[in-house]
């Protein structure tokens, strides 16, 4: 195998800083030298106790030195926990824009609002990569490609820090699931770690070396990320991080050990109460390590202007009209048109009546529960936006059709009976996690609805079973939900209807509950047996809870009636997502698939809007005319959808994640690879994640990475490619022409196939550029590919394999438009 070591860490840092003009124009690397000097001068005046206080986040103890306290705010889609701010689309939607310039402007807006609210440290951007569709925080990730996540993350970071906020990149590294996230041991190869999971961080740090990085919860190859010396070396020695590292809240098991291994701002979060003064002095960690940690914190503060630009008093409403317009623009730019048969969209003048169906009002999900949720304030719902855009020329009706992914009202005792005929269910409680042993209590419960232990005498971990019958009062489709903190199953007449686990019923940040859903066809007056099992072993430590809910009257028939009477129908469906949960199933929750099929049967021009965090099953895909992926688009969710549906704006988003055809596709489809066995999860696929996995396994996805339709058509001309040795880069040039009759947006993607000797994935994204052209418009594009992005990790270094490389322009990872080969090495 003919390879050569390509770049040292320092050389790579210099190269990567020149990767994207939209980033380097605003890079903060320039003041790094002055920041180092100022940090060194201040450090020389500090005592060991003062250095430790700084590392422990005891800012009061160092205030006399003029060191500002860090005021932190989660800021991946705006300012979490604040009012009077702008809610931008979630990170996966940001990735769907494929637009660095737009990311930069969002970063500037977030930075400006953060400063105005009195903050100097933005906990964001979040640039995690999505490995599996199960991931409950995939909305907070930047898709499945490291070049896409890295370039947008760099634009966001540099822009945020230009407003004198220190950014904190999240979460390093290989953080891809919520199940057992505090303790899971991720077994990932060194090559996959370096080439894939660390790659976005490398690019951001190259553009903004004085930023900070948050370490993730899981263990990496046996050692918590918070005290994994190899990860700290990768960041500081390999990538050239000049700023500090910080743990996620409650992450890890030993803060002193973490500080010894390379953690800098080690006192973040509630865990600091177990981190008393004196923990880091007197030989607990080397003096040089304490100096390095304190220096890095000071460098970040000096480089980003925290000393020279004290935060102002917090303002009230900091969301300007310009920022709100930007949120709308970003929402449009992230909206992906997945399919559009018979030109069902845009809704033209031929549509005189429109049925809007589903959760399209204030029940629209604008964000994701957890640290990324941003209160949208006063905003325009999709239903209101559609009505406003339709005006008097289109009659718009609304039928709820489905409640979407929400918990349902508790089943009342009036329809429940125990075996003895009492109203309610028989509850049996056990002092074990598996429902074994002598019951602690057996009693009649009028309803299953609790958030604290229902009976006395239960230990911290316990289980229960409820049995009896349910007699329906209506005939037809019934919805059932379980809202647990723990693991639960509902059986009706012996058949599992609902089953799953939630670590908590609702994450403490954000407004959304985490229910489990199911349906059953029941007949009025015909009693069915009910069995519910529950245990809190999988719940947040010391918590419990369960609500058994139902919806006995289906909303689908009224929706069908509305659809049948309209020229077109738009069906909104959703799925809740967030921190502290994963998706066990791939289907839309509850009765939503049934709704779509029923509406499509009633109206030939049915459009489906997926308001989800990522891919879901689409068993009705051949029954509907168009499908739009809307993500969670923040305050612009409604106006953006109306603009796209009526054709005022081209759907400008492209998929940053692959949509599997079914639950068996993609990585993480066996217990060993997700959610893991015996506390360990195997990343057996190596670097073949996302579209790379589908290519390697020859799987045909429902929709490939990079896919997205326009209301016009584009042609890509022949591809030219050239190697520029002095600049260590490849340039590719292509002419893009709008061959349609209206203005539209295209995203030119460039993929590279490495020589066989590289033993790499089948292809990788190496460049992309978004452009908008008028009808018949044409533009010549030249895209730059740093040779570093063509390397593989081998023998402890990034190396370029000598041989023939194939470069291809494309509209998606599966839609190649032109190819060109080039010899390198």
Overview of this protein structure:
22% of the residues lie in helices and 25% in strands. α7 runs parallel beside α9. The radius of gyration is 27 Å and the shape is globular. The strands form eight sheets. Strands 14, 15, 16, 18, 20, 21 and 23 form a seven-stranded antiparallel β-sheet that branches. Strands 10-27-26-25-11-12 form a six-stranded mixed β-sheet, sandwiched between helices. It has 825 residues and is α/β, with parallel strands linked by helices. Among the domains are: 322-405 and 556-697, Glycoside hydrolase family 3 C-terminal domain (Rossmann fold), CATH 3.40.50; 410-551, Jelly Rolls; 714-824, Immunoglobulin-like (Sandwich). It is built from 18 helices and 38 strands. The N and C termini lie close together (12 Å).
Chain-wise SSE layout:
Blueprint: E1 3-5, H1 9-16, H2 21-24, H3 32-44, H4 48-55, E2 72-74, H5 91-96, H6 100-116, E3 121-123, H7 146-161, E4 166-172, E5 185-187, H8 190-197, H9 199-207, E6 212-215, E7 219-220, E8 223-224, H10 229-238, E9 245-247, H11 255-261, H12 287-303, H13 321-334, E10 336-340, E11 353-357, H14 382-390, E12 395-399, E13 409-410, E14 416-417, E15 425-430, E16 441-445, E17 449-450, E18 463-470, E19 476-484, E20 486-492, E21 495-502, E22 516-522, E23 528-535, E24 546-551, H15 556-564, E25 568-574, H16 592-602, E26 606-611, E27 626-629, H17 637-645, E28 680-682, H18 691-697, E29 714-716, E30 720-724, E31 729-738, E32 744-753, E33 764-773, E34 778-786, E35 792-794, E36 797-801, E37 803-812, E38 815-824
Parallel strand pairs: 2-3, 3-4, 4-6, 5-7, 5-28, 6-9, 11-12, 11-25, 25-26, 26-27
Antiparallel strand pairs: 1-36, 7-8, 10-27, 13-24, 14-18, 15-16, 15-18, 17-24, 18-23, 19-22, 19-24, 20-21, 20-23, 29-31, 30-31, 31-34, 32-33, 32-37, 35-36, 37-38
Helix pairs in contact: 1-9, 3-12, 4-12, 6-7, 6-13, 7-9, 13-17, 14-17, 15-16
